[in-house]
Amino acid sequence: MVDADVRLGLSGSDLAIRNKTFHSALTMTPGTLEGISHRFLSVVAEHGLQESVGDFQNCNGIPSFTVTPDVIEAFLRIAKENSGYDLLSDCFGVDRLAFRTAHRFEVVYSLYSIQHSDRIIVRVALALDQPCPTSAGIYPAAVWPEREIYDMFGVEFTGHPDLRRILMPDDWVGHPLRKDFPLGGEEVEFSHNVREQESK
């Protein structure tokens, strides 16, 4: 990494600025309702769902909040049909085992409005083995990411049109991206341990 940076002509101060910018982009700070577009909040209030919104965060200027699984379909439908968030730009899972939170997993939906050049992040808080309603009927692009979350984290998506493994074999036991998934596997063959096996 250092050699590549030197070849690019980056000085120590350049590297410090780059690293500071990179780390600041990853920080999550407490936020408020003010960071979320008013057109979205007004529709949420009309449907009586404002009490379901919590844990506001600000991630590099993008408002983020958590909702419960029972209202995620309503939130995503409001976001798409009434507030212009017509693009599901990302969907992924998070295992919060080491974060001392009340919930174990999060399903994160990053929504973007092409018309308004606006983005919000909706997080669904899930307990261990708690299912999450699928968003495939609202955002068809969620079909494969939700399959990946199911495969890697073990989160079940109720109503999903084709919920099965997508990366691991069908007979694989466990979910590799869970933080309590045991590490290990076949021993890598090097010259020293191959010689040990041959001498036995």
How would you summarize the topology of this molecule?
Elements: H1 2-7, H2 12-25, E1 28-30, H3 38-46, E2 54-59, E3 62-67, H4 72-81, E4 87-95, E5 105-113, E6 118-126, E7 132-133, H5 143-153, E8 157-158, H6 191-199
Parallel strand pairs: 3-6, 7-8
Antiparallel strand pairs: 1-2, 2-3, 4-5, 5-6
Summed up, what is this model?
This protein has helices at 2-7, 12-25, 38-46, 72-81, 143-153, 191-199; strands at 28-30, 54-59, 62-67, 87-95, 105-113, 118-126, 132-133, 157-158. The chain is of the alpha/beta class and 200 residues long.
- Rg, Å, rounded: 22 Å
**Proportion in helices:** 25-40%
What name is given to the CATH topology? Answer: Beta Polymerase, domain 2
Count of discrete domains: 1
Alpha carbon gap, first and last residue: 42 Å
CATH homologous superfamily, by name? NADH:ubiquinone oxidoreductase Nqo5 subunit
How much β-strand is present in the residues?
Answer: 15-25%
Derived structural class: alpha/beta
Number of helices: 6
Report what the structure shows.
The protein has 200 residues and is an alpha/beta fold. The protein has a single domain, classed as 2-Layer Sandwich (Beta Polymerase, domain 2). Helices cover 30% and strands 23% of the residues. It is built from six helices and eight strands, in the order ααβαββαββββαβα. Strands 1-2-3-6-5-4 form a six-stranded mixed beta sheet. The longest helix has 14 residues, at 12-25. The two termini are 42 Å apart.
Defining key terms:
200 residues; alpha/beta; Beta Polymerase, domain 2; 6-stranded mixed β-sheet; two-stranded parallel sheet; 6 helices; disordered N terminus
